[in-house]
């Protein structure tokens, strides 16, 4: 139907008194206005990961690296061929992230496409300058998803991390992504943080952020070679470190793995983990698997008017391994004793995390300010202006209780 015929039909419809049909026809025409923003896959470079480092030359603010999928190589790999690496990377410098992205058009024949980006990796030195300016583009641009994971490159650059070949997954960022998720589900020393989790921290309560960190173990210089994935084990491989702690959007330090897990218990992030215990009455060790962990916060007001944080950790688990001679796990009193030892260990990890965050880093990554704001707003109203000075002085009580429900299918220790 030509434009002239459409106009003639609309005039006739008005003359016949059919306004509803006219409105409906106009609505249909709007929907058929064409695919004005259509982009073909073979003209795009799909970015799976972004890495940000300081500019090594010092001439500009940052160095941006993107990991781009090579679909032709991924397809040949799935068919059993050896088509080369599944990804490539581009690196450019700029004073802003957006400037560096646009400057990359001098190095690629495809327009970079960020709607499928899974991870943002920021180097340790760049994070100490400040994370918030680096995520502004992601939060502002509707074409970039805010539910991408964020991680820190510890002891290496984000560029080197993104250029490290991996054995388990052909696309490196897929391995980084899965490593964090598997650890969160099975051990709890790291847990996933998304860009949207960081950007929301500017609200009431002054909660500070934490970010998981990745490092390269082995020979870092061999990480970007295809030969790296043909040896067992690889010469260089990525591994998880521990949680980095932010203060006002800037990295102030790292927790140890046990402190990271203590924080995870206090944040309600532990899905499952393993706690190693010394045998109660002999040499050796036993391990308890925690397969359910709940955390409940209470805020009380002390006699001096200051808040007291009480955290109840309710754990459920089972004995998975015993290296203690003569222990009788079929006796209820022994299970109660092991539950008490488990609670003491978890409580110690949580208290250690609290001590470091309060005394060494002065960073409310625990979210206590938010808890006070929500549960005792009258107290928060008095504390808000001086929270940085008051946070290290806040008292807390950690109550931990562990129920041991099983000891496996063997009744007694095999160790004599």
Rough outline: globular
Largest sheet: 9 strands, mixed
Secondary structure class reads: alpha/beta
**Alpha carbon gap, first and last residue:** 91 Å
Query: H/E order of the elements?
Result: HHEEHEHEEHHEHHHEEEHEEEHHHHE
- How much helical structure, as a percent, in the residues? 25-40%
Number of helical segments?
Answer: 14
Q: What's the β-strand tally?
A: 13
Based on CA atoms alone, the radius of gyration comes out at 28 Å
Residue windows where pLDDT falls under 50 for at least 5 positions: none
* Overall pLDDT confidence: 87
**What fraction strand?**
25-35%
How does this model look, in words?
With 416 residues, this protein is an alpha/beta fold. The protein is built from 14 helices and 13 strands. The strands form 2 sheets. Strands 1, 2, 3, 4, 5, 6, 7, 8 and 9 form a 9-stranded mixed sheet that branches. Strands 10-11-12-13 form a 4-stranded mixed sheet, sandwiched between helices. Helix 10 packs across helix 11 (332-360). It is globular. The protein starts with a helix and ends in a 10-residue tail after the last strand. 35% of the residues are buried.
């Amino acid at each position: 139907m030509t434009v002239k015929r459409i106009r003639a039909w609309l005039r006739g419809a008005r003359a016949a008194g059919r306004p509803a049909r006219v409105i409906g026809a106009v609505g249909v025409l709007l929907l058929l206005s064409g695919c004005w923003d259509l982009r073909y896959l073979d003209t795009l470079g799909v970015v799976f990961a972004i890495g940000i480092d300081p500019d090594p030359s010092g001439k500009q603010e940052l160095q941006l690296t993107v990991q781009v999928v090579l679909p032709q190589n991924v397809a040949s790999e799935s068919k059993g061929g050896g088509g080369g690496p599944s990804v490539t990377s581009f690196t450019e410098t700029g004073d802003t992230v957006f400037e560096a992205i646009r400057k990359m058009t001098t190095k690629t024949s495809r327009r970079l496409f960020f709607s499928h980006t899974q991870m943002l990796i920021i180097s340790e030195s760049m994070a100490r300058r400040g994370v918030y300016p680096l995520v502004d583009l992601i939060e502002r641009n509707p074409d970039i998803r805010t539910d991408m994971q964020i991680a820190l490159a510890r002891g290496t650059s984000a560029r080197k991390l993104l250029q490290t070949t991996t054995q388990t997954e052909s696309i490196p960022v897929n391995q980084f992504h899965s490593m964090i998720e598997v650890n969160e589900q099975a051990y709890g020393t790291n847990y996933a943080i998304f860009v949207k989790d960081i950007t929301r921290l500017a609200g009431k309560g002054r909660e500070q952020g934490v970010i998981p960190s990745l490092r390269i173990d082995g020979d870092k210089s061999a990480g970007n070679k295809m030969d790296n994935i043909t040896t067992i084990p690889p010469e260089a491989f990525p591994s998880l470190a521990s949680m980095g702690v932010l203060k006002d959007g800037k990295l102030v330090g790292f927790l140890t793995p046990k402190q990271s897990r203590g924080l995870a218990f206090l944040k309600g992030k532990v899905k499952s983990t393993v706690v190693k215990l010394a045998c109660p009455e002999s040499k050796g060790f036993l391990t308890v698997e925690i397969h359910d962990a709940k955390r409940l916060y209470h805020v009380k007001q002390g006699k001096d008017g200051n808040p007291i944080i009480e955290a109840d950790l309710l754990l459920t688990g089972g004995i998975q391994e015993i290296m203690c001679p003569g222990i009788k796990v079929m006796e209820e009193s022994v299970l109660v004793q092991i539950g008490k030892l488990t609670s003491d260990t978890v409580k110690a990890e949580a208290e250690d995390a609290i001590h470091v965050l309060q005394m060494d880093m002065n960073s409310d990554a625990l979210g206590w300010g938010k808890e006070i704001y929500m549960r005792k707003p009258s107290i928060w109203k008095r504390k808000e202006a001086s929270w940085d000075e008051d946070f290290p002085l806040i008292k807390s009580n950690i109550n931990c209780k562990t129920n041991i429900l099983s000891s496996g299918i063997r009744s007694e220790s095999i160790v004599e």
